[in-house]
Amino acid sequence: MQKLMHQLKYRGNKELGLQLGKLMGMYLKDAGRFNDVEVLIPLPLFPSRERRRGYNQSMVICSGIAEVLKIPVLKDVVVRTQYTETQTKKNRIERWQNMEGRFELKKPNAIANKHILLVDDVVTTGSTLEACGSQLTNAGCSSVSVATLCYAAYR
Q: In whole angstroms, what is the distance from residue 54 CA to residue 77 CA?
């Protein structure tokens, strides 16, 4: 899985992300616990990082999930307001501090009273997902669920 994530994030393999998203969508559909999800929200990248990469891998995964679940993807509801260094070399506490206050809600009406599925590629400590999810819950969505392709063991 590590090699697949590397292909998706750093080698421009968007087709892989779309296929993994479709697989994820099938698993989510079969699980039955996500049948009431109304919208998908990809975890946003800071704009300069997205430009450098050429795409947001979470958005690509969302596109695959959306094809299967037949629910919309809301891309610009929440944005990263500040550039953050990569989390890969940070300890658990530094990760939480690095993400505090880094997201801003742009379209609160789009998520009001909705069950959101927040999508990312990898979860390690959950600090990024929690920071983003907090903005969504504070804005009045009914609930936030999280889906990631994999988790990284944190030592």
A: 20
Is the model's pLDDT at 15 over the cut of 60? Answer: yes
Q: Residues 143, 149, 151, CA angle at the centre, nearest 5°?
A: 95
The torsion of the CA quartet 83, 86, 89, 93, rounded to 10 degrees, works out to 50
Q: Which helix (H) or strand (E) holds 128?
A: helix 127-138
* Token pair listed for 61: 């995964």
> For residue 68, what are its two tokens?
């299967």
User: Which strands make up the sheet holding 143-151, listed edge to edge?
Assistant: 39-42, 115-123, 143-151
CB 96 within 8 A of CB 126: no
Q: Are 111 and 40 in contact (CB under 8 A)?
A: no
Tell if the pTM clears 0.70, that is, is over it.
yes
The domains found in the chain, sorted by start residue, are 2-151 (3.40.50.2020)
Give 117's strand partners: 40, 145
